[in-house]
Amino acid sequence: MSVEDANKIIAFLSAAYMATEDPQAREEFHRLANELRKASNQPTQ
Question: Which domain holds residue 16?
Fold first, then answer.
């Protein structure tokens, strides 16, 4: 996966993360973003 494509999807996950206060949902959005970072050879956060 390209860095550019991963970052586009991560931007949507970030928006969803900020739109909720549910800790479980936030944890899942964070996990998914890190999986995209791994798939595009970026460091996890």
Answer: 3-40
pTM, two decimals, is 0.93
- Block means of pLDDT (10 residues each) for the chain, length 45 residues? 98 98 98 98 97
Does a structural domain hold residue 11? yes
45 within some domain? no
Q: Is the dihedral of CA 40, 42, 43, 45 positive or negative?
A: negative
Distance CA 15, CA 2 (A): 20
Q: What are phi and psi of 19, to 5 degrees?
A: -85, -10
Total domain count for the chain? 1
Can you list the alpha helix ranges (DSSP code H) found in the chain? 3-19, 23-39
